[in-house]
Amino acid sequence: MKLTTKEKWRLAFEAVITAGIIFLCYFAAYEIFRWFVVTFKETVSTLWLFGDVVEDIDQQELWGLTPLVFLFLTITAGVAIHWRLKRRYRQYKLKHIIKELHYIAQGNYEHRIRGNYSGDIGKVVESVHLLVDSTVEAMEEERRIEQSKDELITNVSHDIRTPLTSIMGYLGLIEEDRYGSEEQAKKYVHTAYEKAKQMKALVDDLFEYTTVRQTTVPLDYVTFDMVQLLEQVAIDFELEAEKEGKNIQIISSKKPMIMQADTEKIVRIFHNLLSNALKYGKNGKNIRISVQEQENNVLVSVKNDGEKLSKEALIQLFERFYRAETSRSQETSGTGLGLAIAQSIVDLHNGEITARIEHGWTVFDVLLPLKRSL
What we know:
The protein has 374 residues and is of the alpha+beta class. The chain has eleven helices and seven strands. The strands form two sheets. A five-stranded mixed β-sheet has the order 2-4-5-7-6. It has a two-stranded antiparallel ribbon with strand order 1-3. Strand 6 and strand 7 (361-369) form a beta hairpin. It is elongated. The protein starts with a helix and ends in a 5-residue tail after the last strand.
């Protein structure tokens, strides 16, 4: 810490004052001792063991003491002055720290308390910096949450308004008898019904997303075979895969692959990944699911050889309502919540999900613990 000129002068002045006070204390103590010796000569002479103290002290002033005694008194005074100035310097340190804390409290959170501090003060300064950093991080997280809420409202409004407008339009035509035949009226009703199903899918996904985002959600852990579970999920997509001209293949380094997890939620993870691969893996013919054990974890990789995603898309894939196709059209009938839900379920199981491009394949890696973590 660098002292100001004013503080340096104060320290010098305090050193002089402290030295003067110590000298006055020495002088007063010496004069009292000399008075006592002169007044009680016989008693002191009897008790004193080092020469004729009465004669020596009666004729000697304080500054006439022997060099050894004078050196001792000077060293004692120096120690007292050093202690006093050290205390005052510590107070100046605290004053500087408090001043800079007030500056930080005014909103200058990027500011750091200047100077090198050691000991307890150094620990306090370090703790203050950690507290400021955590506060800034919490504020930034709060800002992101607020921004995320605004985006949530915007995206939900958009995705609900589009099918709702169609529903109201077609039902309005029927309400006003503006249709040419019963067949046309049925067509209007069917279109409105399909749009209503899109809205229901969005609401269901929204409800599930908000549910799995709660860290207090209890998981129903059971012991199961991951390979068998994936085979069941693949069977559910066989017809859709054949329709799209795609082949689903499961490869496992070990059978069975026994682990513990909430099977209902695990199924949802791979249901979303396969659904994503079928919808967005354009021009692809193969979907491969590989399973391998890694220490105390199981790694499941879901990959397709369809159209590759951009680096920007890979970064944003797990954000809610994000779609690789930016038009947000209803053609893919997706809500943009599938991967966000998958990530939330993986997080609940203390796992990790990532996306990457490898040799022309789009790969989703899901890493899950084999056993329930207590």
